[in-house]
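Sorry to interrupt, but I need a hand with the structure work. Could you write out one complete protein record for me, on any chain you like? Just paste the record in under my message, thanks.

. . .
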Amino acid sequence: MVEEAITALPLEREPQGLYAPIRYVLSLGGKRIRPVLMLMAYNLYRDNVKPCIMPAIGLEVFHNFTLLHDDLMDRAEMRRGKTCVHLKWDDNTAILSGDNMLVMSFHYMMQCEEAKMPAVMRIFTKTATEIDEGQQYDINFETRNDVTEAEYIEMIRLKTSVLLACALQIGATLAGASEQDAQALYRYGECLGLAFQLQDDYLDVYGDPAVFGKKIGGDILCDKKTFMLINAFLHASAEDKAELQKWIGNKDCNPDEKIKAVTALYTKIGVDRMAKERMNAYYTEAKACLDKVNLPEERKQVLREIALELMGRQK
């Protein structure tokens, strides 16, 4: 349903220089997890999800707008295996097409039951603001060497988790759920997003490239302030910290040697264990939040299953 609705969007307007990049970005696919979560939350309370389709598409357009501008700011070359918009076209096109996607996202989000619109737009605009805040924190961290674990967790909460949480809360709100259920679903999405991002940090170091979908060690090579690096510096002995500092910031070393050396230090210091413990804690809290939703267990099973799938778990 999500793919069909995206394909049906009126993107053949003129000028094509504005809309062709938008069609291109939306055609790159992805998990579509955010609109699907919104529809799932709605479906907890109502069987016919069609009234929720356009707000769900609005959230997906917004998500892809953030990726388009993120790629421009990061000077990234590829997104989902395809050339980024600012390289396929140019920087000005990426800015303007992204801006139009932001406007479109609000337009589609407003295509909901009129009585529910004020609540929905409060949630959406709050989330949009928080994502910008998270992006700015991420930019700030690039030039800081004193980022704390708490600061990092707050950054990934703002940049990643709140949009998953927003999807669930809006879906529940549109379906007429109680405020208690909507808040429990919000926190479920927030915790799941935190666990998922920490897992991404972990897999960038310890994942199987064939399963992870990209070469491991990218965060190490660019000295990215991740949960892994922050805790390595925090818990390292003086000797290990000196060795770590020798590699971090070193752009002239052999990349494979750097990845191997830093990974070995991570393992020695125990940040692999720390990351697993923290992601398990957030995953456990997410499950507890779902328990609080006042619905029969069979209605909530689909959200339990998607949590298992996102975290690559069997139970």
